[in-house]
Amino acid sequence: MNNNTANPKKRKSAVLLRMGKYFLRHKLLVALAFFLTIASNLLALLGPYLSGCAINAIDTPTGVVDFDSVFFYCGLMAAFYIVSAAFSYLLSVVMIKLSQKIVRQMRRDVFNKLMSLPVGYFDRLQAGDLINRISYDIDTVNASLSNDIIQISTGVITVVGSFISMLVISPLLLCVFVVTIPVSVIFTVKKTKSLQPYFRARSGKLAGLNGYAEEMLSGVKTIRAYGREEKISEHFAEKNTDASDAYYYADYHSCSVGPTVNFINNLSMVLISSAGALLYMAGRVAVGDIGSMIMYSRKFAGPINEFANIITELQSAVAAAERIFNLLDQKTEPADAPDATELTNVSGDVEFRQVNFGYLEGAPVLKKLSFKAEHGQTVAVVGPTGAGKTTLVNLLMRFYDPQSGEIHIDGKDISTYTRESLRGAFTMVLQDTWLFDGTIFENIAYGRPGANLDDVKRVAEAANVADYIESLPDGYFSVVEDGGFNLSKGQKQLMTIARAMLSDARMLILDEATSNVDTRTELKIHDAMLKLMEGRTCFVIAHRLSTIVDADLILVVKNGDVVERGRHEELLAENGFYAEIYRSQFS
Question: In the beta sheet, which residues pair with residue 407?
Answer without folding.
Answer: 352
